[in-house]
C-alpha cells in the first residue's frame, strides 16, 4: 500500500501516481479530477489496483492486487459458482424424481393389483363373472368354478344382482349358496349368507332366474355362474 499527497485546486483534484511498478503498467491509471465534500473518494479501480483519496489526511491510498491474489479469488469465485449450480441441478433432479415416484407408484401399484377379466369373463366393478354355455348339476358346477380359481357366483350387492339378472335372460343359473338340513345358507367359501335377498323354495341349493333366487335339490342340470375378485 502506497500513500501519496494530493492537491485540490479550483474544486478539482489531480492525482499523479509517483510509483507504479512495471509489472502492472499495462496502461496508465485513469486519473480523475474530483472535488467532493466526502472524506474519501475512490478515484480509480481496476482488476490490478484501487485508488482512494482521503480528504482529512490529504493522502491518496493506492492498493495494488497481485496477479496470484486476483486469479485465486477469481478461481475461487468460479469454483463456488460451479458448485452452487451443481447443487441446484442435483436438488432439482431429486425433486423431479420424487414427483415422478409420487405420480407413478400409485398407478403401477393399482395396475399390479388389478387382474383383468380375460377370455369369456365379464368384469363388473370389483368382480369377474363367467356365464356357462354348458349345463351341469350344482356340485359339478361348483367343481368347474373351483378348477378356474373361482367360486360359484357370490352376490353381495344389488348392482351385481341386477347385472346378473339382465345377463342370464330366461335361463336358470346355479349360484354359490347351499345349506344343510336345519342350518343357515352359506356361500361356497364358508361365509354365512346375511339374508339380504329372499331365497324361494325348500331346496338346499340356490339358483338365479330373471325374477329372483330359488332353491332345489341340486340334481337338475342347468347353467351356472362363476365369480372371482378382480383384485
UniProtKB/TrEMBL annotation:
PANTHER family: C-TYPE LECTIN DOMAIN FAMILY 2 MEMBER A, C-TYPE LECTIN DOMAIN-CONTAINING PROTEIN 180. Residues 124-224 form the C-type lectin domain. This is C-type lectin domain family 2 member A. GO terms for cellular component: external side of plasma membrane. The chain crosses the membrane at residues 88-108. The keyword Repressor does not apply. GO terms for molecular function: carbohydrate binding. Pfam families: Lectin_C. It is a single-pass type II membrane protein. SMART domains: CLECT (SM00034). The keyword Ion transport does not apply. It comes from the Eukaryota. The lineage of its organism: Eukaryota, Metazoa, Chordata, Craniata, Vertebrata. InterPro entries: C-type_lectin-like, C-type_lectin-like/link_sf, C-type_lectin/matrix_domain, CTDL_fold, NKR-like_CTLD. Keywords: Lectin, Membrane, Transmembrane, Transmembrane helix. It is found in: Cell membrane.
